[in-house]
Amino acid sequence: MAHGIILNSFIDLEPETIKYLQEAYNNKPKIYSIGPLTLMDKKIDDDVSQCLTWLDKQPRGSVIYISFGSGGTLSHEQIIELAIGLEMSGQRFLLVIRCPNDRIPNGTYFNNQNSTNPLDFLPIGFFERTKGLGLVLPNWAPQVQVLSHVSVGGFLTHCGWNSILESVVCGVPLIAWPLFAEQRTNAVMLTEDLKVALRPKIRDNGIVGRSEISEVVKELMEGEEGKEVCIRMKELKDAAKKVLSEDGSSTKALDELAFELKKCVT
């Protein structure tokens, strides 16, 4: 049997799961809930500087950030619907886009040498029509720096675990758009259990339409349901801050883990 299980999570985020793991086998192996641990990217290049400079010019809480993680890809049809939906919403946006893959939703993992410019797949005239309203970045953005920026008020996410933790630490409410694997389970947790996310409806053909995208974005950024989601995410942010404080449960668990590891090597 393992000596312990380390979880990058905390009780307020996954209360039932952590409680079950602790009680099911009388806390053996020992459960160390040490999260939320996130990594601040220190890399600053021209694209990053452009992104953060643009955010500096936007009103507080006015920008929705859209990213599908390091491996997530959309079909070309879905990229078109997403872009037009953002345009229709009239909201400020920061969109990270990758080249489309019409076969698999995690295509970036298998085609990371593609030199095609993903911006070429956006609708004709999109940049002209959204000038001053949005910024589009190819492939990557400094996510933690973006989420911690005061102008960012929402995050449309694929529901990867790192993205969830980063949004919680920064207190940014979500739109859940899972693509594959455990992301679907994570989306249910965010929308139905924690209620810190909204979720767009998917058509029978698997596409989220432009009107649906527009409506859910506007609801998160301006609507009453969005305000409620924002309040609950702020409460979760405060809970995360508490467990990471000097006397917090995650800090104590990490200290205990370090003590046990030290015993193993001495």
Describe this structure in words.
This protein is α/β, with parallel strands linked by helices. The protein folds into two domains: 4-35 and 244-265, no CATH class; 46-240, Rossmann fold (3-Layer(aba) Sandwich), CATH 3.40.50.2000. It is built from ten helices and eight strands. The strands form two sheets. It has a six-stranded parallel sheet with strand order 5-4-3-6-7-8, with helices on both faces. Strand 1, helix 1 and strand 2 (30-33) form a beta-alpha-beta unit. Helix 3 crosses helix 8 and helix 8 crosses helix 9 (224-243). The two termini are 21 Å apart. The mean pLDDT is 92.
What keywords describe this structure?
single chain, 266 residues, alpha/beta, Rossmann fold, 2 domains, 6-stranded parallel beta sheet, two-stranded parallel sheet, 10 helices, 43% helix, UDP_glucos_trans, UDP_glycos_trans_CS, glycosyltransferase, UDP-glucose:glucosyltransferase, UDP-glycosyltransferase activity
Overall pLDDT: 92
Shape: elongated
Largest sheet: 6 strands, parallel
Quaternary structure annotation: single chain
Strand coverage percent: 5-15%
Please identify the structural class as seen in this structure. Answer: alpha/beta
The CATH superfamily label of the largest domain reads Glycogen Phosphorylase B
The level of helicity is 40-55%
- Which residues form runs of ≥5 with pLDDT under 50? none
CA(first)-CA(last) distance:
21 Å
The Cα radius of gyration reads 20 Å
Number of strands: 8
Number of helices: 10
Name the strands of the widest sheet in spatial order.
Answer: 5-4-3-6-7-8
Number of domains: 2
CATH class descriptor name of the largest domain = Alpha Beta
Which series of helices and strands comes N to C?
EHEHEHEHEHEHEHEHHH
GO molecular function: UDP-glycosyltransferase activity
Family: Belongs to the UDP-glycosyltransferase family.
Protein name: UDP-glucose:glucosyltransferase
Pfam families: UDPGT
